[in-house]
Each structure stands twice: as structure tokens, then as C-alpha cells.
């Protein structure tokens, strides 16, 4: 009840705002008032003013060339119905208001509203005879029968116009004739960009003409544009990089319907007109907007993606600065984390490498005992022995691993123009792990040598403390890569599991 009241109040406000006439103390709408109320800001470019005026005549129930508040409420209630499109059409064709549409009514209304330059409709066609009969006279159509006729009307107009232009009956028409047909039947559903590119449909396949199959496929796309948009949005939401291929579209279209919703040709057409500025075959929502939104313009796309446009304006130098800034923050965060847990790492190394003067006797009983003895014998700084090499390696280690993983993934992406397979994700992760070892193994060697120095000095006489630089010079290149095979066996499988697991947890579990 409250919803009805609020809607009625909304109708009243709209009516009061636009109604400029007055009769017997009651406000009324003129034709101009009515059009301003139902089509605010409309430039009448796609849908002609005359077509909106048809609605005015429908609202003007008494034919007085004015619309009262009651008329306006009845009209608004009509167009708010789920089947409003069919209801409005039926009332336009039902000239006598009897709830039936005759052949003469259908012919009269359709003929009077066909564009002057449109191909005349053949009212003697077999298609129309199937609905209204022929031999024993035309029968009147009920509302339900009329809705089926109207639903198929555009398809019949399409067929008749194609036949008109295909005078040689080759099954092909010129691109400019295809454009005329589509503008006759579906101009209001297309953006200016799609309209301008209509003739390019002939480039989708070999030849310089447009086949009947392509015309029907294009029309099917436009007729089912709501479902097209739904499938595209679901597919993009499920994509990690928010871009999809034809295969992605077909997959989600199949999942959205029990039967095949779109043919490969219809999918080709969608991607053809969406990808006029990008022939990679991997498109995002901004690309599809030119097909989905009849009001799409280049300037509107700029408004939709301000970040992208802003990035272009900033230039390469600014992007480098931003990357350096992010890298610096990551390095600082990594350094803080490494410093916080470094005593634990040192204790782990000491426990793994502990030695004693007495055979069979262990220097440390457990990790806590190790921590206490290091603190007692070497002081607080002893807990951080070897921290320098660790900090030196933190930032490059993460940067190398992430960069190589992204690089390999992108290489796979470019090859197949879509989401990479799981084994390819593992290869990318494993490659990242291997590249990390090349850089971090020398640092690990130096760090461990520094960590165990304190223990060696306590248990072995005349063992001097060495600096990181001395260790590097003493070991040489070969020495710095001792144990690299073991590190590879550890880090390559780890990264091969880590990166895909992380990506799929975000995508499949948390839907990010």
C-alpha cells in the first residue's frame, strides 16, 4: 500500500512539475509538457519525436489534445507493467478499443508509422497469413495472439528488406544496404559508434558483402542484448584481469542457459563491434559498453575509466615513480618483517648447526635454551648477527619473484589470449622460485656463516670474527652457490604451489 502511495505521489510531482496548461482550475499537460515528462533530456536522435508522440496520443484517452492527471496516472501505470511494451503496442493497433486487432487495423497503423524511406511492408506475405488467415477471411487477433505477431514482426521486416536489396538472390547484400536495414528495425538500440561501424560487418568474414546469416545473427544479438550484457558481466566478474575472450563468453552463456544461447557467429559479431579499437580478442567491460549502451560515446568512456585516462596523461615517467614508490614501501615492509623474526631465524640456524667440544653433547637443549645462551654470551646484538645480508636480499627477492611470475604468466596469456591453464600457472610460479634462488643463495650462505660465527668463537679457539665482505671474497662464486640444488628443490616447488594457490583462493574462494 505504501509503495502504491509513494508511486502516486511521484506521478503527482512529475505531473505538477511539467503541466503548464489549466482547464477549469485543473492543471493539464500539453504535448510538449508530456514529452518533457516522459523523455527528459531526450534529443530525439535515436527515437524520433513523432514516435514519442504516439505515446501522447495513447495517454490522451478522450482525444482532447491534453492529458489530465488521471490520464497521466493511467499511462504511468500501464508502462510500469512487465509486459508494457506489448500492452502499449496493442492499444495503438486496437483502434476501436474492443480488445481485438483486425487485419485492417494492423495494416493501417503499421503503414502510417513506417519511415517514408523504408522498404514497404508486404502485407500479402505468407508470414502474416499464418497469423490472421487468408482463404476464409482474416480473423481478429486477441492480445495474446497479437503479442506473438509483434514479437516476430521485426524478423519478418528484416527478411523482406534483405530480399528487397538482394535482387539477384545471391544471399548477400552490400554493407550500406545492411546498414539501412538495421537502422530501420533497431536504430534506437545502437550507439552511434556501432551505427558508424555497421558496414564493417562485411570484414568479419571473407568477401565484401554481408550474408543473410550475418544479418540474422546481428539482429539476434540486438534482440537479446539484455542477456548479452548479463553473460558479459558474469564472465568479466569471474575473470582475474576483468577481460574475457570469445571462449569465456560462450562458456558463461552456456552456463546461463540450458540450451545454447548464442551461436559462434553471434559471438563473433559481439566481439567485432566491441573490439573496434582492440583486435586482441581479449576485451573488458569498457570495450563492450559501446555495444551494450545505446548512449555510449567516446567521451562517456573517458568518464567511465578516469584512472586509465589519468594514467595516460601522467606519462611513463610518473608510472616509473609510482612503481618505485610501491617497491620502496614493499622493501620497507619486508625489512621490518625480516628484522622482527630474525632472532627466530638465527635460533633455527644455530639449532640445525650446533656443535660441541664433547662428542655426543649438545650445546643447546632446545630453542629457548639457545635463545637464552645467545643473549647471555653474545648480547642482544648477537641475535641479529647476519641481519645485513638478509635486509639486502629482502626487496630484490620479492621483486624478482613477483616480476618473473607476472612475466611468464603474461607470455602464456599472449599466446592463447585468455586465462592460462593451471599447469602454466605452476610453471610461472616455479620459474619465479628458480630465479629467486639465483639471487638469494649467495646471501643465504653469507647470512648463515655470520649467524654461526658466535657459536664457533665460543667452542673453537682462535676463531676470528669475519665480516660479510671477507666471507664473499673467501668463498668466491662457486662457494657462494654451495647447496643451490637443495635450495632449488625447496623454492621451486614452493613457488609453483604458492602462486597458483594464492590466485585461486582469491578468485574461487573469496571471489576477488
Task: Throw out a few tags for this protein.
512 residues; mainly alpha; Recoverin, domain 1; Mitochondrial carrier fold; 3 domains; two-stranded antiparallel sheet; elongated
Report on this model:
Homodimer (via N-terminus). Belongs to the mitochondrial carrier (TC 2.A.29) family. Keywords: Calcium, Membrane, Mitochondrion, Mitochondrion inner membrane, Repeat, Transmembrane, Transmembrane helix, Transport. Mean pLDDT is about 85; it is low at about 300-310. The protein has 22 helices and 6 strands. Helix 8 (about 145-165) runs antiparallel to helix 11, helix 17 packs across helix 19 and helix 17 packs across helix 20. With about 500 residues, it is mainly α. A hairpin with a 2-residue loop joins strand 1 and strand 2. It has helices spanning about 1-20, 30-40, 50-60, 70-80, 85-95, 105-115, 125-130, 145-165, 175-185, 190-195, 210-225, 225-240, 245-255, 265-275, 285-290, 300-305, 305-355, 365-380, 385-415, 420-460, 470-480, 485-510, and strands spanning about 20-25, 25-30, 170-175, 210, 245, 285. The strands form 3 sheets. The protein has a two-stranded antiparallel ribbon with strand order 1-2. Strands 3-4 form a two-stranded antiparallel ribbon. The protein is elongated, with a radius of gyration of 37 Å.
Amino acid at each position: 500500500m505504501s509503495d502504491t502511495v509513494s508511486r502516486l505521489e511521484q506521478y503527482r510531482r512529475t505531473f505538477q512539475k511539467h503541466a503548464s496548461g489549466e482547464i477549469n482550475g485543473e492543471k493539464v499537460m500539453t504535448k510538449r509538457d508530456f514529452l518533457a515528462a516522459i523523455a527528459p533530456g531526450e534529443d530525439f536522435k535515436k527515437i524520433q519525436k513523432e514516435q514519442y508522440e504516439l505515446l501522447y496520443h495513447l495517454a490522451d484517452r478522450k482525444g482532447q489534445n491534453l492529458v489530465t492527471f488521471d490520464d497521466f496516472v493511467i499511462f504511468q501505470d500501464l508502462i510500469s507493467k512487465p509486459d508494457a511494451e506489448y500492452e502499449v503496442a496493442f492499444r495503438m493497433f486496437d483502434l476501436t478499443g474492443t480488445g481485438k486487432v483486425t487485419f485492417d487495423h494492423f495494416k493501417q497503423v503499421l503503414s502510417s508509422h513506417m519511415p517514408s524511406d523504408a522498404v514497404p511492408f508486404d502485407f500479402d506475405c505468407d508470414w502474416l497469413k499464418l497469423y490472421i488467415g487468408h482463404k476464409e477471411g482474416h480473423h481478429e487477433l486477441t492480445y495474446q495472439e497479437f503479442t506473438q505477431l509483434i514479437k516476430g514482426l521485426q524478423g519478418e521486416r528484416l527478411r523482406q528488406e534483405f530480399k528487397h536489396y538482394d535482387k539477384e538472390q545471391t544471399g548477400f547484400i552490400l554493407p550500406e544496404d545492411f546498414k539501412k536495414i538495421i537502422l530501420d528495425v533497431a536504430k534506437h538500440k545502437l550507439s552511434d559508434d556501432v551505427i558508424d561501424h555497421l558496414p564493417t560487418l562485411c570484414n568479419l568474414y571473407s568477401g565484401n558483402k554481408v550474408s543473410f546469416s550475418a544479418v540474422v545473427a546481428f539482429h539476434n544479438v540486438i534482440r537479446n542484448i539484455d542477456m548479452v550484457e548479463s553473460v558479459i558481466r558474469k564472465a568479466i566478474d569471474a575473470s582475474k584481469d576483468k577481460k574475457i575472450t570469445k571462449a569465456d563468453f560462450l562458456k558463461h552463456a552456456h552456463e546461463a542457459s540450458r540450451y545454447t544461447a548464442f551461436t559462434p557467429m553471434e559471438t563473433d559479431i559481439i566481439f567485432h563491434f566491441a573490439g573496434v579499437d582492440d583486435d586482441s580478442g581479449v576485451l573488458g567491460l569498457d570495450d563492450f559498453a559501446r555495444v551494450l549502451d545505446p548512449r555510449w560515446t567516446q567521451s562517456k568512456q573517458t568518464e567511465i575509466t578516469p584512472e586509465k585516462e589519468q594514467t595516460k596523461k601522467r606519462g611513463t615517467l610518473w608510472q616509473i615513480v609510482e612503481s618505485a614508490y610501491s617497491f620502496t614501501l614493499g622493501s620497507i615492509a619486508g625489512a621490518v618483517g625480516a628484522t622482527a623474526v630474525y632472532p627466530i631465524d638465527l635460533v633455527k640456524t644455530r639449532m640445525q648447526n650446533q656443535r660441541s667440544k664433547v662428542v655426543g653433547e649438545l650445546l643447546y637443549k632446545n630453542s629457548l635454551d639457545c635463545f637464552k645462551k645467545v643473549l647471555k654470551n653474545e648480547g642482544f646484538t648477537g641475535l641479529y648477527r647476519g641481519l645485513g645480508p638478509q635486509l639486502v636480499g629482502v626487496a630484490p627477492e620479492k621483486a624478482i619473484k613477483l616480476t618473473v611470475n607476472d612475466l611468464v604468466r603474461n607470455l602464456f596469456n599472449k599466446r592463447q589470449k585468455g586465462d592460462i591453464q593451471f599447469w602454466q600457472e605452476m610453471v610461472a610460479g616455479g620459474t619465479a622460485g628458480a630465479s629467486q634462488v639465483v639471487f638469494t643463495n649467495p646471501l643465504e650462505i653469507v647470512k648463515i656463516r655470520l649467524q654461526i660465527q658466535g657459536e664457533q668463537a665460543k667452542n673453537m679457539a682462535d676463531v676470528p670474527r669475519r665480516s660479510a665482505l671477507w666471507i664473499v671474497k673467501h668463498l668466491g662464486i662457486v662457494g657462494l652457490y654451495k647447496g643451490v640444488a637443495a635450495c632449488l628443490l625447496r623454492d621451486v616447488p614452493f613457488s609453483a604451489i604458492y602462486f597458483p594457490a594464492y590466485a585461486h583462493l582469491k578468485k574461487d574462494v573469496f571471489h576477488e
